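Incident log, support desk, overnight shift.

02:14 A customer reports that sequence design results differ from what the structure should imply. Their input is reproduced verbatim below. On-call engineer (initials T.W.) acknowledged and began investigating.
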């Protein structure tokens, strides 16, 4: 994984987890919150085991998914949904983990917190067996965020901003060299300014350029001139 420009946030997350604190990541869609935690998980895998779960699902479904992840492979892989919500919640808090690393539960896609979801967070936090990373949507209500911080206790809130221009330039230089785009420094600067350091926009530029390069290497894959597909392609703003 190629990752740039989040040294400050990475350091804050790791220091918080080492202190025994939890982390809440906030930011707009496409800013790279989940990618950031996946990078931290990969680089610290000798110390922590990160378990990702989609917290937009119901508490019962969340518990079933956690059971499937926490149980040893081949043991009870389908039982997570068979047992009831409260039974699974109890099992999660009392399992004897074969993996002795500290477990970090990553609660992703938190947009709205129901009473049931808050109760599940409270229950798991009280077990004191996990660290937590909560990834919240930028449109989450302030009162929900306040209650979430209270349920997690000692939770560090980190707002993820756009990448700086130098990090954005480094990103485009990397993929230009990797895929032989031959972007000049002027083009790299233009792309960094055009995308404003917004990761999802930066990724889209590289993806579109890569697709275009592959089409040029395979002329048969290109649309016929003046075909509907060709007209759509010409109407888009292509990367340099």
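02:41 Re-run completed on a clean worker. Output:
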């Amino acid at each position: 994984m190629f990752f740039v420009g989040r040294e400050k946030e990475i350091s804050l997350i790791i220091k918080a987890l080492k202190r025994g604190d939890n982390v809440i990541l906030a930011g707009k869609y496409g800013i790279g919150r989940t990618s950031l935690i996946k990078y931290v998980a990969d680089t610290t895998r000798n110390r922590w085991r990160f378990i990702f779960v989609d917290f937009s699902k119901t508490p019962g479904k969340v518990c079933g998914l956690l059971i499937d992840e926490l149980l040893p492979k081949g043991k009870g892989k389908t039982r997570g949904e068979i047992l009831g919500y409260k039974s699974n919640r109890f099992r999660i808090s009392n399992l004897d983990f074969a993996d002795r690393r500290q477990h970090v539960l990553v609660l992703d896609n938190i947009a709205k917190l129901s009473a049931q979801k808050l109760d599940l967070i409270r229950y798991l936090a009280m077990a004191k067996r996990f660290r937590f990373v909560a990834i919240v949507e930028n449109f989450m209500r302030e009162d929900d965020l306040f209650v979430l911080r209270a349920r997690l206790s000692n939770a560090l809130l980190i707002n993820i901003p756009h990448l700086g221009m130098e990090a954005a330039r480094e990103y485009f230089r990397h993929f230009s060299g990797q895929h032989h785009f031959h972007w000049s420094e002027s083009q790299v600067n233009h792309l960094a300014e055009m995308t404003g350091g917004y990761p999802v926009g930066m990724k889209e530029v590289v993806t579109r350029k890569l697709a275009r390069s592959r089409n040029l290497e395979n002329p048969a894959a290109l649309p016929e001139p003046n075909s509907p597909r060709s007209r759509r392609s010409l109407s888009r703003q292509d990367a340099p």
